[in-house]
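Archive transcription. Copying these from loose printouts into the bound notebook so they stop getting lost. Printout 1 of 2:
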Amino acid sequence: MSADLVLIEWVDSAQPISQWQYLSDYRYLKPVKCVSVGFLIHDGKKVKGLAPNMGDVDRSKTIQASGTIHIPTCCIKKITKLEEVK
């Protein structure tokens, strides 16, 4: 498997408010600091793909990922490559 294990620090909007509300009741919510750890499966200019779970890793043609997240590059503050401690 060739994907690096990384920690990504990024910012995201707060959870959307689903119910109707008066604009006069609107309150500003600060962006939320997030951290995600996983295998960097896509290192694009506009988005990074991160997979915390990998399966069937011994066979490159059938390797699988679950729980993937796509993080817009403009939201990323820092990427740290993680090393295995021996």
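Printout 2 of 2:
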Amino acid sequence: MPRDPLPRDFLDAALAVAHTAADAAAGEIEAIYRRDTRVEVEWKADATPVTIADRRAERAIREVIGAAFPDHAIYGEEEGGADTAAAAEFLWLVDPLDGTRAFVRGYPMFSTQIALRARGELVLGVSHAPLFGESAWAVRGGGAHINGEAVNVGSAETLARAQLSFGNLKTLAADTSRWQRLGGLLLDAERTRGYGDFYHYHLLARGAVDAVIESDVNILDIAALVVIVREAGGVFTDLDGGAITLETRSVLASCPGLHTQLLEALRG
């Protein structure tokens, strides 16, 4: 039997909390980013970098969400929670500093990603990049917004008129058969770029890019962006056309008129 839909006032309250949490994280991140001294970097077991900014930002987010929703679970990039994530009725998915490499190198292509998964479905997303000057958000059924303006994906229906953006080319190239098929897409598309991280999803949501192809992601990187792109009218799956889950590792996101074509091209 289907469950009752989430009340709109609950979603509005959760969105307000997500914005507050993202602002709190931004305060921690900016204070460290503006320092003249070089930020110390540690390397995690998965060969990804982490800094004090990542950790302080996640603690700030957890404090805000925990105060508002003490019975909700939180799964964060730095402080964990994956072991209880699948069973949680209400689960916040948090990447406090997505784009740590950019942060360390001193350019502002990084963001805070906060999403809410309720009863197994992603229903809310905030993608906040204040130093870059852009913030996107969406709630299920409420459309997508960037810097306060409603946005929608584009209307491209052929690769010859499509602009594609690719993520980590190194990991895409590791699958040699798929890499060859990606080469065909490069030749057929009107234009290709690699904007990366949060930014190419924001571009997709507002119709400036028509598709994003990416591998080597985790759900914390993309959960908020899934909601934003879908609420902007886009389609968001993994590279095999599968549903987005807590185990998702790749992305094929696009405007509706291209998704099937891209999926078929990638399958060969």
